[in-house]
Design brief:
single chain, 340 residues, alpha/beta, Helix Hairpins, Rossmann fold, Alpha-Beta Plaits, 6-stranded parallel sheet, 4-stranded antiparallel sheet
Amino acid sequence: MLEVKTIKISKLLIWLLVIIFIIISASIVYMILLNVSFLDGLYMTIITISTVGYQEVGEMTPAAKIFSISLILVSVGTIGFLVSNVIRFFNESNINEAWRRNKMDKQIAQMTNHIIICGAGETGIHIVKQFKKRQIEFVVIDLDQDATETLKEMNVPHLYDDATKEEVLVAAGVKQARGLISSLAKDADNVFVVLTARELNPSLHIVARSHEEQSHKKLKIAGANNTVSPNEMGGRKMASMMLKPTLSHFMDHIIDTKDMSIDMEEVTIHEFSELCKKTLREAKISEKTGLIVLAIRRDDVETFIFNPNAEEKLRPDDKMIVVGEKEQINKLKELAKDHV
């Protein structure tokens, strides 16, 4: 879209230069035909083009009259064409839209520690809704006009462009972002986005959508930390709703509750927090925050420590899975020095 507008502006500038050329050339011709100064020649050109009918500055010879008729025919059509294109350009561009776009671009440029969502299709739009509920700072990239119109209605920061382009990821702040989700329609595009994003920001946490089973490995090799198959997740969800309906409903309530009174969160223990190197009994997390600690995961261990006992010591970079109210989780993040 930006390229289309640039082309339109270029065409308008060309036509403007044509009119300036006509005015200067006509002024010189009047200087010669009427034997007047350049200013008088310019005056004659302007009143002829505008057809206002002021008095001529010199004797109108037959040659001058023929030239004036020709100038009127040429200039009126040219200026009329330019004016109509200028009006059409501003109608199509929409000044308010341009102002809104400029404001959004500045907002995106100032983002740090945010998340980039590539693709606002059926999967991507659900991610957007979840992030909005949780007040996560994020920006969306999509090349589909209908999708971007939806994002505009939702008042979501977005870029109407191709997420596979390096310059677009840079414009979305990939170098300052903390995470990226690639949820494009084609696995090849997701692989390319992951490769480019990983190169631009080696510390970026990347989650990618996989449409085909064999694409999981390719996405991992490209640099994705995690891959997700919507079909596989949907199958698990449906099986869970059939076999364990109450548990499934409970988990949905935690993840999708509208008022967000209850939430499940991951909290990282940082080295300089008061909780580090203390046992759960010494940390008194339940007493201080009212949260329930479901599990602990360590970077050097792939599995979770479920329902950890009171003597389990918290280490730097431990990730605690907790359940509770949003205010309680925020309090634990302060204690853990997890400000991400």
